[in-house]
Amino acid sequence: MLQVKYIPQDLLFCVYESSEQIGGRTKSVKLSDSITVNLGANWLAGQNNVLKKYVETRKDTFSEDQEKLAIKVLDVSFKDITTEYISLSESYIMALDSLETSLHDDSPFISIEEALSNKEIKYPNSYLKSAVEFLAGNESYSGHSDAMSSQGDLIVDAIARKTNGDEYDLIVDDTSKIVNGIASQADFSLENVNLNQKCVSIQYNEEIGNYFIDFDSKKKVIAKSVIITVPIAQLQKRKIEMNFIPESKWNLIDKLPTAHFANVFVLLEETIAFDENTWYIPTFDTDDLVQPFRTVRMDRYIHKTFGKTLLHFMTVGENAKKGFEFFTVRT
User: Fold this and answer.
1) With bands split at pLDDT 50, 70 and 90, how would you rate the model's confidence at 25?
2) Which residues in 316-328 are b (16+ Cβ under 10 Å) and which e?
3) Residue 288: other Cβ atoms inside 10 A
4) CA atoms of 288 and 154, how far apart (whole Å)
5) HSE of 191 in the Cβ direction (CA atoms, 13 Å)?
């Protein structure tokens, strides 16, 4: 949308949105008159982030007492195994830090799991391994386990911190303000966005140099240029027919990793005593029930500011897809 600012005034352009609301993953929902939650993006990476000026942020600390670890880990039988987790997580964090400082441009293109394989971290079971990678590693915000993450991601993370700043846990209270802020800066009216227009085909005609765009609403558009802003997963599933992308580029697109995240917020009618811990809980699924969420915690800000108990459930990867598919079928 910022590009709108630099488009010549005599150029006619249109914006089409496939859903019923503008902003994509910056979707906020009011749970009450005073409490708003973000179903998509919840935090900004760094205090120098270019989007920070559009929203109100706060640094989220899991515990006011920095000497106390505000994490609890339950095993598959809901037994507290936090002590075992702490010992493993400390070894893991040291190994990860050592790996990050040793990386250079010629480092081999291997996964984080493979890179750490010689660090001799002895996991008693796969469940504790998953807890360590999720809570102490990158999975909770990258969406990928160490087996599916490149060690090069650690270099990218270090570069991002130099650019954006070290405060990676800036919580955004209402991400919907980002869209309005960008539109305002670009002097673009959001009323000009055509909603509920799902694109199904973009065909390029070389003879006349135009793109022919079809929507599921039967609307047709002819354009000189097209900018597509859809999730990579949509392209990988060939949701939009396109005749101008060569097979070699499709092969590269198909190799791009995609991450899935799921957030569920529950505002309790009755306020209960605040628990500062983030709880890592067992996931499971049966024919009649799916519990895909890997962590749950109370929102400290909501509890202190409004005296309410807000539970935040979160999960990533295949668990997020599984939960979405299960709940979608039943609703």
Assistant:
1) confident
2) bbebbebbeeeee
3) 6
4) 40
5) 1
For residues 204 and 223, give the distance between their C-alpha atoms in angstroms, rounded to a whole number: 9
Q: Are 278 and 70 in contact (CB under 8 A)?
A: yes
Residue 306 pLDDT:
94
pTM: 0.82
pLDDT in tens, 148-189: 888 877 777 777 777 777 766 667 778 888 888 988 988 888
Structure tokens at 87: 């010992």
